[in-house]
Amino acid sequence: MITSLLTATLVILSLAIFACMYRLIKGPSRSDRIVALDTIGINLLAMIAVISLLLHTEAFIDIILLIGILTFIGTTALARYIERGVVIEHGDDAHDR
Predict the structure, then answer these.
(1) Close Cβ partners of 43 (under 8 Å, ≥ 6 residues apart)
(2) What is the pTM of this model?
């Protein structure tokens, strides 16, 4: 029973990823695309967690943490790029004067 429920969850999550892929490609603005990319990352985390439950293993926990960190960093960098036009700002150093 639980196996069929987890399999159905994987199907629903994969459909959600395909819907986000559509928004990522067709999105009217850059912020829509960033939100879609972040949602894909979250759905991917959920899919890996469900696969970990299906396989009765804790081996994928490190992968889940790595994808979570990369998703956060990517979303933050893209949002900063939209807001300011650059990801890394060069400050006023003493060498620049």
Answers:
(1) 13, 16, 17, 20
(2) 0.80
